[in-house]
Amino acid sequence: MKMTPMTRIAVTLAALGVLAACEKHDATAGQAAGAFNNLASQTSQKFDQAASYVGQKVDAAKQSAQQNIDSAGSMPDVSASSVAATARSNFDNAASATNAAINNAASSTGASLQSAGRKLQEWSATSGAASNPQASAQGSVASPAADSSGTRTEMDK
Predict the structure, then answer these.
(1) What SS3 string covers 100-136?
(2) Contact at 8 Å (CB) between 142 and 149?
(3) pLDDT in tens, 38-84
(4) Distance between CA 141 and CA 126 in Å, rounded?
(5) Please, are residues 34 and 26 in contact by the beta-carbon 8 Å criterion?
(6) What is the 3-class SS of 74-98, one letter each residue?
(7) Whole-prediction pTM value?
């Protein structure tokens, strides 16, 4: 259960009042009043400390807001050299990103072309053997001299 500072103070005052009333030895009215005065003084000090803390935080927030307003109001450096440096930096970043994209595309294309080439060679080997009765009569071993079509042999792969 959360209690506000005012609720805590009220509960503390009530508890002290009950304790003072239940005290076994005789307390004079002056002692009870002194205890309440001490409690009131301590409570006042705590309130002052809390107010000081809140005031410090408010002042810090005001300063930060004022600094933000001041910096927003000032004009940025718009010299030709700073604009050229910024443009050069942006150009370099764009060139680097483009180069990386081209390298990735070339790598992917090369891998795809290799895969397609292998599949085409496999298809050509199986299709050629089925349609050429002389090649099927010779078996699966083809001599390099018999291969006059210019295609790569298995050893070239």
Answers:
(1) HHHHHHHHHHHHHHHHHHHHHHHHHHHHHHHHCHHHH
(2) no
(3) 777 787 788 788 888 888 888 888 888 888 887 776 666 677 888 88
(4) 13
(5) no
(6) CCCCCCHHHHHHHHHHHHHHHHHHH
(7) 0.30
Please say whether the beta carbons of 130 and 136 come within 8 A. Answer: yes
Number of neighbours of residue 131 by Cβ within 10 angstroms = 9
**% helix / strand / coil in the chain, to the nearest 5?**
75, 0, 25
| Tokens standing for residue 123 | 């298809």
SS3 18: helix
Q: If you ran DSSP here, which 8-state letter would residue 146 be given?
A: T
Query: Quick one: tokens of 20?
Result: 């003072």
CA distances from 20 to 15, 42, 132 (A): 9, 17, 118
Largest CA distance in the chain: 131
DSSP 44: H
For residue 149, what are its two tokens? 């079509």
